[in-house]
């Protein structure tokens, strides 16, 4: 069995009286794409924040490569090889691809002078690694000229720099067209082929279904389902399951999604 | 809708590398050297075009005057003073800020220079003291804006009045004559003539070249651009955004100190108003030069050419045979035409 990169055991997070997460178990193995699905308010963003170390869980245990960690923080998360690509893409669109990839960690020589040639070389390598290549742009193209899917490629290339083992993609295909989504999937497959793992978060089941090896459905702060790709025949199964979870007994409207966090306990 | 996406049909794999030939795949229209150069420097080249057209018009109006060296010599004496502030201001505007306090910093730093020289110390020591003063004032203004969370437009305007006010209160309008300067080594090195060319211009060109490298080939320039482009992203990627912002104000302080000192050395006199006249021409130069107001991008060389353009307007208008009353009109005309040109020339990416 593949190495277990990260494991969350019985993670809870409460903001005052409000429970965002109530006892979540989640693990990601090396070279695996895990699709995390959940409606608005299911606790997806809280879970991402915990994984990237921005937020500390109220209770529960985090294991990195089988070893429990203490003092979990953003720096510890990065040290453990976890990189998060946030929803807002966080790119400087008037700058080149190279400048975005090396933002905040410029390759410099004497007195802070940039090693431009080395940066371009390294950027090309990273871009090739995720299959992010084209005849119409170079590492020195301006990010603003790229399409939405290609911009995700820049963000992913930036994330895999520094030997990240797990890349968390927060709704990378939201607001993208089908062809653009396909581009992002292509990058994701390349990243997996390079032996890295991906946690792919989305609320569009079709998007997640095409790419994930394993599905985790989050509902009101709890894991409602964990299923391997082989166990799920079609995206419709997942949709039906989620509708079932959201509206037990087939009475839509009884459980308002907005109350989900309060009800999680 | 059922599952219909077939990603691999659409994948952008056309350029995936073949091992032996990694560079070939990046072939791009702009790979042609000339074209790439033009695309990368379109703002600066646009400014240069404005300058060439303007000078051509002036020369056609009165060809003989423009063959006299005196006309250029006088511009080359005062232009360096402007260049030392225009260039750091390009960094500030790129960073998404503005600094209107540099005229007072010029006055303040050159006042310190005058005091040191008047007290009988070597002018080199005076220059060092002036630069130290400029650094400190830049840090003060920058900290006020950044850590005080103030709008740089208003806060630096306030600081300009405040510092100038201090100078006026203490000096009560009195100027300081520095006749001993003419015999000093510092004057020979920084303010004399070399083969009839005012030596200041060489120092200013050196400053522009160094700053252009700092802007395009140094971590400082890279971080200034990123902070001006998307501060949240810069923060997320571990850049100390506040520190970068304070640094650009310090850079302006240093530039203003050098500019103030040069202006005193030209006149052998320090006036309590030293630097005041530079506020609007310098600001105009930055934007005529092709640095947009929204931050994230800019051009140091363009800013320098903008400064040359602005300094030639006054000389050119008079030399072309028009009365001095036309100067302001032409100033405005050039600014507006340049802005229109840059708007057409530069796309804004969001």
TrEMBL record, chain A:
Keyword Coiled coil attached = no
Query: Which keywords does this Swiss-Prot/TrEMBL entry list?
Result: ATP-binding, Nucleotide-binding
The UniProt entry, under InterPro entries, shows: AAA+_ATPase, ABC_carbohydrate_import_ATPase, ABC_transporter-like_ATP-bd, P-loop_NTPase
Residue ranges annotated for the ABC transporter domain, each copy included: 6-245
User: Mind telling me what this protein is named?
Assistant: ABC transporter ATP-binding protein
Q: Does the keyword Nucleotide-binding apply?
A: yes
- One of its Pfam families is ABC_tran
Q: What is the scientific name of the source organism? A: Mesorhizobium temperatum
GO MF, any single term: ATP hydrolysis activity
> Taxonomy-wise, where does this protein's organism fall, top ranks first?
Bacteria, Pseudomonadati, Pseudomonadota, Alphaproteobacteria, Hyphomicrobiales
From TrEMBL, chain B:
Question: What subcellular compartments does it reside in?
Answer: Cell membrane
Q: What is its main location?
A: membrane
Which membrane topology describes this protein?
Multi-pass membrane protein
**Keyword Membrane on entry:** yes
InterPro entries, from UniProt? Answer: ABC_transp_permease
Cell membrane in keyword set: yes
Return the annotated region ranges for Disordered: 1-29
Q: Name one GO cellular component term.
A: plasma membrane
Which Pfam families does the entry link to?
BPD_transp_2
The GO terms this record gives for MF are: transmembrane transporter activity
Q: Where is the composition biased (Basic and acidic residues)?
A: 1-11
**Which residue windows are transmembrane per the record?**
43-63, 69-93, 100-121, 190-215, 248-271, 317-340
UniProt keyword list: Cell membrane, Membrane, Transmembrane, Transmembrane helix
This protein is called: Ribose ABC transporter permease
Source organism per entry reads Mesorhizobium temperatum
